[in-house]
Structure formats: C-alpha cells, structure tokens
C-alpha cells in the first residue's frame, strides 16, 4: 500500500505540472496506415525528438518499431469500405479527444485523412506529408486532406504548387 | 519457422538467395508466378516469396502469405537480391540495407492496384537511379538471367532528409 499523497504534495505536483506545461513539451500524434505509409512515418522520427509522441497505425505487429514510445492500433480502412471507414473515423475521434495532441502528423492514407479532418475540427495543428509513392499526382486523400492541413508537403519538387503543397525534401534522406 | 526448399532432385545450389515480396496490402500473382515458373524451369533453389492473401499457390518455390515484421526483416537481410512490387516499404528498406532490388510495378489496368501510382513511382525513382525496374514479366526474366550485373545503390540513412525533418520540427515547436 502506498500512502495517499498529502494535500501539500498534491499542490506541489499540480504546480509542477503547470510549470512543465508552460515550458511545455509538445504532444504529437503520428499516424499512418500500414506498409509504405508506416515506413515513411518512421523515417520522420527525428522531427519528434523534443516531443511526447504517440504513434498510431493499423497493425499491432508494428508496436516494436517504436518502442518505448506509446503505440495505439487504429482500425484499417480504405474508401471502398464504408462501415470500416465509419468505425475508423470514430476511433480516431476518440483517440484525439483522449490524447489531446498539440499537433497531428500523417503520411496517409485513410486513417491520416480522418486524423487531419477531425483534428482540424478539434482545433489541432495538422501536417500532411504526401507519400513519396505519389510521384506524378497527389493521391485523392492527399488532395482532400492537404487543403485542410496547416502544413501540406509533397515529396516531389515537381508537384509543388503556390497554393500548396510545398516541397521540403523527401524520406529518402 | 520458414521452411526453405529442401534439396530437390537436380536443384542447383543457388549462387544468390532471392527474396520476393508483394507487400502487405494486395496479392500480386503475376510477379510470384513469373518467379515460380522461372525457378522450376531452371531448377533453382534459394528462392523464398511472401505472396499476400491469394488462392494461388506456388508449386516450386518456398512461400508464406504474410510475414511478421521480425521474420520479414530476417529474410530481407539474408537475401542477396530482392524482387518486389513498387511498394515504398520495400524500396526504402532495400536502399537502407543496400540490397539490390528489382521492382515490377503493379498495373491497375490488370486489376493489381486501385490506380497506376506504382508505374509513376517506379519511373521517377528509376530516373533518380534508385531502383531497377522491370516493366513486365519478360523484362523481369531478362534481369533474373543476369543477376551478377546488379550493383547496390548508394545507401540511405535511417531517416528522411534533414530539410524535411527540420521543417516538421520547427512547425511542431511553434
């Protein structure tokens, strides 16, 4: 049995919490579907080194890729399966409400699209990094989500446009 | 445990171990069949394929439908040559671990994907000299008959270009 904290230690803890959120490590939700989207998200990890990051993807077996960071599985879906889409959207909404990230980063595809759209409604900052696999035109989810993202990036210089997306390098390194 | 082909009658000991992968999303029988036929005709051992969720079964080469990530990585690292669809997961791993890679893009026109982005990806990465592309089974067989000529590409690091990660980092910190 641990002793219940005295009210003074509780006050101290609250004060510490306030202070730390003032100097604040940002909280990031990094989300992508499985396969190539996930591999690309992993290659962005140096961007999160000063943040508390929680990774979300569609396959439980990827948990080890990001250990010891927090990891959440979200349902897989694509735009041809309406019921799964709805379930995925609800789970992602719950995830964002629960975790309250400052910023949401995604490399696509469908789960990332939902995270951007729902995140925007919940006043989060959002980043869409379009997959390097879209070398000649943006994906449909990229075009739709990108317009709503606060930062919209393509990985191909020739796809950059004045109204977005911007080009800032690619995951090849 | 993966059962690799046992020594069948007349099976040649492979000079190169080949790992074939079609990715986790969709099957790609056209690729796996081409390799299976080629291996049978030439009595080649040392070939292992991850073929996805498909009713078709290879008759000659060793295979699994899916591989858990650690098993996949092990097969990948043990292979001398990787043959795959134009999926970015495999392409990035090949560059990072310096494995020669032959890519045969899926074609939406044959029902192998939802759109033709694999053709575009393959074309543009070939322009950057990052991958070897076989546009169909014939080109694939030609490349397979010439495996000694393959060189590894410049390795890439484990992370994206610093410009990209710095752009993200600065945005997140704002």
CATH class of chain B: Alpha Beta
Helical percentage of chain A: 25-40%
Q: What's the main sheet of chain A like? A: 7 strands, parallel
CATH topology (level 3) name of chain A: Rossmann fold
Describe the structure.
The complex is a heterodimer of chains A (173) and B (174). Chain A is of the alpha/beta class. In chain A, 38% of the residues lie in helices and 17% in strands. Chain A has one domain: Glycogen Phosphorylase B (Rossmann fold, 3-Layer(aba) Sandwich). In chain A, strand 4, helix 5 and strand 5 form a beta-alpha-beta unit. The longest helix of chain A is centred in the middle third of the chain and has 18 residues. The relative contact order of chain A is 0.13. Chain B has one domain: 3-Layer(aba) Sandwich (Rossmann fold), CATH 3.40.50.2000. Helices cover 37% and strands 11% of the residues of chain B. Chain B has six helices and six strands. The longest helix of chain B is centred in the first third of the chain and has 14 residues.
Question: What's the topology here?
Answer:
The complex is a heterodimer of chains A (173) and B (174).
Chain A: H1 7-23, E1 27-31, H2 36-42, E2 52-57, H3 63-66, E3 70-73, H4 82-99, E4 103-106, H5 110-121, E5 125-129, H6 140-146, E6 151-154, E7 166-167
Parallel strand pairs in A: 1-2, 1-4, 2-3, 4-5, 5-6, 6-7
Helix pairs in contact in A: 4-5, 5-6
Chain B: E1 18-21, H1 29-42, E2 47-50, E3 62-64, H2 69-78, E4 81-84, H3 88-96, E5 101-103, H4 117-127, E6 132-133, H5 137-144, H6 162-173
Parallel strand pairs in B: 1-2, 1-4, 2-3, 4-5, 5-6
């Amino acid at each position: 049995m641990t002793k219940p904290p005295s009210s003074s230690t509780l006050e101290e803890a609250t004060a510490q919490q306030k202070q730390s959120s003032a100097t604040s490590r940002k909280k990031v939700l990094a989300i992508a579907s499985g396969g190539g989207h996930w591999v690309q998200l992993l290659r962005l990890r140096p961007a999160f080194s000063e943040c508390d990051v929680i990774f979300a993807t569609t396959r439980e077996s990827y948990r080890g890729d990001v250990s010891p960071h927090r990891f959440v599985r979200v349902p897989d879906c694509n735009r041809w399966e309406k019921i799964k889409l709805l379930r995925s959207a609800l789970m992602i909404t719950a995830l964002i409400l629960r975790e309250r990230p400052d910023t949401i980063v995604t490399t696509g595809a469908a789960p990332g699209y939902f995270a951007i759209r729902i995140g925007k409604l919940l006043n989060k900052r959002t980043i869409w990094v379009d997959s390097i696999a879209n070398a000649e035109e943006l994906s449909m989810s990229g075009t739709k989500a990108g317009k709503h993202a606060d930062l919209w990036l393509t990985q191909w210089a020739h796809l950059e446009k004045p109204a977005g997306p911007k080009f800032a390098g690619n995951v090849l390194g | 445990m993966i059962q690799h082909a046992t020594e069948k009658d007349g099976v040649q000991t492979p000079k190169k171990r080949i790992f074939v992968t079609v990715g986790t999303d969709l099957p790609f029988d056209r690729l796996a069949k081409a390799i299976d036929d080629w291996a049978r005709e030439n009595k080649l051992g040392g070939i292992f394929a991850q073929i996805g969720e498909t009713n078709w079964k290879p008759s000659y080469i060793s295979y699994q439908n899916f591989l858990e990530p650690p098993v996949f990585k092990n097969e990948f690292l043990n292979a001398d040559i990787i043959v795959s669809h134009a999926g970015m997961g495999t392409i990035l791993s090949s560059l990072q671990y310096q494995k020669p890679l032959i890519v045969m893009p899926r074609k939406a026109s044959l029902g192998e994907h939802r759109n033709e982005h694999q053709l575009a990806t393959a074309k543009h990465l070939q322009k950057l000299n990052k991958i070897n592309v076989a546009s169909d089974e014939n080109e694939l067989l030609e490349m397979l008959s010439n495996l000694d000529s393959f060189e590894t590409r410049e390795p890439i690091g484990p992370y994206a270009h610093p410009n990209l990660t710095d752009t993200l980092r600065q945005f997140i910190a704002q």
